[in-house]
Amino acid sequence: MIxxxxxxxxxxxxxxxxxxxxAMTSRxxxxxxxxxxxxxxxxxxxxxxxxxxxxxxxLREIAGDN
Length: 66
Known about the structure:
single chain, mainly alpha, 3 helices, globular
């Protein structure tokens, strides 16, 4: 068996269980846009609620908001 050439990132628990498929909320969208602006990251409007929560957490870490 050939090992994968790229590291595989684990999916958030909600994504594995089939939950969280709803579109992100307007509050999440606002916060993500602001965090993306502050950190120089690209905003992805297609994220689900659970994906947006995960991304917000990561961007807060990058921005030093924790």
